[in-house]
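Posting this for the archive.
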Amino acid sequence: MMEASFDTEESFDDPSCLAPQPPGSVSPAKRQIREVKETKTTVNGVTFPLPGEGPEQQLLKPNEWSYCDFFWADKENPQGTASVGGFEVLLQKQLKGKQMQKEMSEFVHERIKIEEEYAKNLSKLSLSPLAAQEEGTLGEAWTQLKKSLHDEAEVHLKFSNKLHTEVEKPLLTFRADSFKKDLKKYDHHIADLRKQLASRFASVEKSRRALADRQKDLEVKTQQLEIKLSNKTEEDIKKARRKSTQAGDDLMRCVDLYNQTQSKWFEEMVTTSMELEKLEVERIEWIQQHLRQYTTLRHETDMFNQSTVEPVDQLLQGVDPARDRELWVKENNTGEVRPVDMDL
């Protein structure tokens, strides 16, 4: 809904504006309102300047892309239902962030289950009797390889435990207590101010219509008196003039109350949106911190796994077929005297 500037409201108290005019003429007050260039528009009870009108508005926090600068208008719903307030968009962002945080925690939980199952299977495999009878240097390397599976299982089990305490749990419990309660408090507070603003705007519109009716009544009575179409007296004209002036005063009072309410809503929007912005920064930094802890633990796991393999590498490098043959022969030989030809 378009509305004119209120710069000429004081004209309602000027008696000359409401004095009898020639038939067919328009009162100065009414003519002034019609001629004032519209520089503002009111959408869903909130008044904005029209593009290119008035002084250029500077951002409250330039170059920061702050919430407090970009969520004043309502967002149209694609389904054609009621529009969504800018503050509601910010609240939905917070709720979505909470959900994403929960899903990240669930993802880490699934990783923990995989690590635990993997550790269990490695430990079980390390006890396998397969090839347990291999001997010599190769047998030592094989035994160490199986032992490394047990050590690796321990590494993965410790990794899963640390993932739970240092990543999964912090992600799951971050703002678990009063977060949604606080969001509801913000939502209700801003919503109440918007309702008050809508009510004030409705009062302005009602007062504007009442003023128009009073002005029209005064104009009609003045014309009737001029052309002698009725027995209206000057006293009737004065009464109509007083009602018109009173209607103008009521309109100005309603506009003042509306502006006070809009100013209060503006202040609360700035304060609360910046609080939500702070919460979002804290959420992102918290997740970043614990995802980095995830990668740190993963690197440590790789290093520990490497340490379990190093003894196997060393023993494999020392595998010597000649040495194995020597050891086996010494343990299992049945005599070193060779057969000779039989004498007659």
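Strands lie at 2-3, 40-43, 46-49. The chain has seven helices and three strands.
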